[in-house]
Amino acid sequence: MRQSDLVTEDLLAQLRWLRGPDGTGAVRLAGRLQDDGVDLLPGLAKLRAEVGPEHAGPAWELARLRARARPVFGDDADVLMLTADTLEQAGRPELAARRAARLLAGGAASVADLGCAAGTDTVALARAGATVVAVDRDPVARALTAANVATLGLADRVQVLAADVVDLVDTARDGEVAGCAAAALDPARRAGGRRQLDPDRWSPPWSTVTALLDRVPATVVKVAPGLDHDRVPDGIEAEWVSVGGSIVEALLWGPGVSRTWRRATLVRGGVVLELTASADPGPAPVGPVRGWLHEPDPALIRSSLMSLVAADLGATLVDPTIAYLTSDAPADSPWVSSYRVAEVLPFNLKKLRALLRARGIGRVVVKKRGSPIEPQTLARQLKGPGTGSAVVVVTRVAGAPTVLVCEPLSG
Ligand SMILES: C[S@@+](CC[C@H](N)C(=O)[O-])C[C@H]1O[C@@H](n2cnc3c(N)ncnc32)[C@H](O)[C@@H]1O
Questions:
Q1: Is 138 in the pocket of ligand 1 (CB under 6 A)?
Q2: pLDDT, tens digit, for every residue of 177-225?
């Protein structure tokens, strides 16, 4: 047996124990100790005394992962089997549910979840009413998925399959893969703890992504938010989703479930807002800085739909290469945050500091686009005795390094 096989066998044995009555009790005890603020070493000592040295660490770790998962997964977190890797790879359940509902609205009843990890997408698909073939080449992932669907009462809807997704997609025929009329693919985009920026290095690689989109029309693929638009095949809708001002996922929808060219989706306080365009609307016009600066939501920027919002607001870009908009009025739009511009000056640290002192501004939040400065460092350098505050935006305006001193957002 190879070393890696031994590690896997060990992990699988631990998972079996953790799911049994003794393991369940140990994880519950670890959770109580952690909730009570007991530190790692005394916590482990207590657990060791209860369940022995070989089980104490895994029980502590699972309790810790469940606590980390709870804000996102709610009550499910208390019963999910997870590893640190699979928790990191798991998407948000409310977005997985939204994805599942849209995929199934195409009419498919069965979905292949290609690369299921701990099965959190599998769970969403099964809960949305699909029968699911959950595929992973990693035996630990398969064991986690099998355990999770069983615990959540979904085992009768899910078949867990050991297979290589590359082979399954290679042999996909008649719009089906692994016997399913729809597919969800979430390639691993990290290797050795590092993010893989090149889609050809994802697992499965980009060639499998495009082959799947080509062969199975009812497909959704999770991709890196930074994916180059040039990579998106014709006839494929690309969607960027932001929650709380950060992009949390980017999706490619196969031709059977594509509805538009690009979609920006913004989730705020449980409300979902969408902006779409059936063709490239082109860039927003460029103009001089006016009284208000608007910072677009990243989903709007990445989806190349900024010009739609700019047209609504009567706004222009401050520079053709920079995603800041400007207009004469604050914007009443969920797609941008507006700041009143108080000063515009060429970037010069000494002059900027003097100006802030003269205005009694001692605390600043620094934002930047198109500048190499490090925001936190600059914020420290600009700290002063004044009681006022400001938002300092370091950017390029008509090609020149420029600072915009803005009033902080109210509220
Ligand atoms: C990003 S994770 C999937 C996360 C999952 N969708 C979720 O929501 O939790 C990618 C998974 O694909 C699996 N994988 C990567 N390459 C594969 C391949 N060629 N065949 C089968 N599984 C693969 C990995 O083992 C990993 O579990």
A1: yes
A2: 999 999 999 999 988 888 899 999 999 999 999 999 999 999 999 999 9
For the CA of 208, the nearest atom of ligand 1: 19
Q: Is the CB of 204 under 6 A from ligand 1?
A: yes
Using a 6 Å cutoff on CB, does residue 242 contact ligand 1? Answer: no
Domain boundaries, the chain: 3-79, 88-277, 292-406
Predicted confidence at residue 5, as pLDDT, reads 72
Domain 88-277 architecture: 3-Layer(aba) Sandwich (3.40)
Question: Average pLDDT for residues 271-286, to the nearest whole number?
Answer: 96
Dihedral sign of CA atoms 145, 146, 152, 156 in order: positive
φ, ψ at 71 (rounded to 5°): -60, -30
Q: 224-243: string of b/e by CB count within 10 Å (b at 16+)?
A: bbebeeeebeeebbbbbbbb
| Nearest atom in ligand 1 to 86's CA | 9
Token readout for 256 is 């059977």
